Amino acid sequence: MQTDTAPAPTAPVAGRRAPVWAAGPAVPASAAWREGDPVGRRQFVDIGDLTLECGVTLPVRVAYETWGELSPSGDNAVLVLHALTGDSHVTGPAGPGHPTAGWWDSLVGPGRPIDTDRWFVVAPNVLGGCQGTTGPASTGPDGRPWGGRFPFVTTRDQVAAEIAVADALGIDSWALVVGASMGGMRVLEWAVTAPERVRALAAIATTAQSSGDQIAWAHPQLEAIRSDPGWNGGDYYDLPEGAGPHIGLGIARQIAHTTYRSPRELDVRFGRDAQDVEEPLGGGGRYAVQSYLDHHAGKLARRFDANSYLVLTESMLSHDVGRGRGGVEEALGTVTGRALVVAVDTDRLYLPEQSERMAAGLPGCDGMHLIRSDFGHDGFLIEAEQVGTLVRDFLG
Ligand SMILES: CC(=O)SCCNC(=O)CCNC(=O)[C@H](O)C(C)(C)COP(=O)(O)OP(=O)(O)OC[C@H]1O[C@@H](n2cnc3c(N)ncnc32)[C@H](O)[C@@H]1OP(=O)(O)O
Ligand SMILES: N[C@@H](CCO)C(=O)O
Questions:
Q1: CB of 92 within 8 A of CB of 50?
Q2: Cα 343 to middle of ligand 2, angstroms
Q3: Which of 8, 43, 253, 390 is the most exposed place for a label (fewest CB within 10 A)?
Q4: Residue ranges of domains in the chain
Q5: Edge to edge, what strands does the sheet with 43-51 contain?
Q6: Whole-model pTM?
């Protein structure tokens, strides 16, 4: 936040640079997990044909991971649902088959708040995802990847697939269904669709229906990918490294990532600082915060599939537990399980007031819990101790 020491702008450098993160290690056309790639800890269940809300029927395979042992009575099963760019790898190191380390490593494991010595934890990759569950990178009816022809999937379709997984695993009801952000949407949809199968739910940094603001933030992300020539109508899986829609995907991530952090954090942490010796004031260089966003763009483009990003983002926009059910309050009122609702105080994307609405509408909820964080929406990933304490106490 320096002011008077800043140099005057220099003459603009002719020609703008391409995103720096696209240089360096090659960006694959798609980073989706494909048949023949290392399986890692994944297991698979073929749930058969699923008819989606849009009317399309397709065969669905779900990739999932488990930890712990199912008790003889089957009463200790916990379902963990990931957010937009997560997957079934909730806990454990990165390695062959797993592009990232567990995204909730702090929450799930032996002795941790969701103690895998006690609970049988199941984590599926979402329908439409890119880590082993049927999605745009999967083979379509004509033997080619679905690509841009992958059908429109709603939160309800995703939960329908997860219900079929529970059936296949012989789990009648969950001791807890827990998730944050997009995962929290499915938590709520589970609890409304199948209340008798959700004995407790924990909905973190999420909403009962996507708001106009959330739809607005998503729109330019969708446009960024679809307007990238490398997207090619969603048909890019055979393109060489560097030729896919990674620029569009990276821009989408930059928009999204900005909304995942708080304005204050970005200002205090980066302010107006230049990135290293780069000269942002007309010299073609970057501010540190630009470099930070470039870094996150490059990381996502190297580990995620652009078509899945589109499908999942649009599924989030479809999310409204009240649709066709008489409204949000009516729908929430049908939930029978105990409910934990958690918001992050600085979350500018999933506002605490949206959590307050959920907490007020869920009969089994004793009020919203607010996490104190400087980091905004990503607080659900970063504030491990606060999230862990709330979930541990709730599980009892
Ligand atoms: C269920 C799910 O949500 S799964 C998805 C969760 N995972 C992700 O979203 C992956 C993307 N990462 C993130 O969103 C975040 O890193 C979190 C939430 C996981 C963790 O947040 P933080 O610990 O605060 O990390 P932060 O956002 O500061 O990023 C740190 C990275 O930025 C880099 N960085 C920091 N400043 C700069 C800068 N000026 N220029 C370039 N890079 C920078 C760091 O070197 C570090 O790189 P690395 O992650 O490759 O080691
Ligand atoms: N960092 C999270 C935020 C979305 O909730 C993700 O990428 O999934």
A1: no
A2: 15
A3: 8
A4: 25-211+320-395
A5: 43-51, 57-67, 120-124, 77-81, 176-180, 200-204, 338-344, 369-371
A6: 0.95
User: Strands 200-204, 108-109: parallel, antiparallel or unpaired by DSSP?
Assistant: unpaired
Is 159 within 8 Å of 167 (Cβ atoms)? no
Q: Which of 206, 278, 295 to mutate to test the pocket of ligand 1 (most atoms within 8 A of CB)?
A: 295
Q: Per-residue pLDDT tens for 204-217?
A: 999 999 999 999 99
The residue nearest atom 43 of ligand 1, judged by CA position, is 292
- Helix or strand (DSSP H, E) at 201: strand 200-204
Q: Tokens 């918001």 sit at which residue?
A: 343
Residues 6+ apart with CB under 8 A from 165: 45, 47, 62, 64, 122, 124
Please classify residue 222 by burial: count the beta carbons closer than 10 Å to its beta carbon, then call 0-12 exposed, 13-18 middle and 19+ buried: middle
Per-residue pLDDT reduced to its tens digit, 307-351: 999 999 999 999 999 999 999 999 999 999 999 999 999 999 999
DSSP string, 30-74: -----TTS--TT-EEEEEEEEE-TTS-EEEEEEEEEEES---TTS
User: Domain 25-211+320-395, what fold?
Assistant: Rossmann fold (3.40.50)
> Does the annotation list 253 as a binding residue?
yes
Phi, psi for residue 117 in degrees, rounded to 5: -75, -20
**265 near 375, Cβ under 8 Å?**
yes
288 lines ligand 1 (CB under 6 A): yes
Q: Which residue, by CA, sits nearest to atom 24 of ligand 1?
A: 382
98 annotated active-site = no
Backbone torsion region of residue 265, taken as left when φ is above 0, otherwise alpha when ψ lies between -120 and 50, otherwise beta: alpha
* DSSP assignment string, 266-292: HHHHTTT-BSTT--TTTSS--BHHHHH
CA torsion through residues 173, 130, 253, 144, sign: negative
Cα separation of 288 and 368, whole Å? 36
Which element (helix H / strand E) includes 200?
strand 200-204
Higher pLDDT, 241 or 324: 324
The one catalytic residue in 138, 181, 262, 318 is 181
* Contact assessment for residue 142 and residue 165, using Cβ atoms and an 8 Å cutoff: no
Average pLDDT, the chain: 95
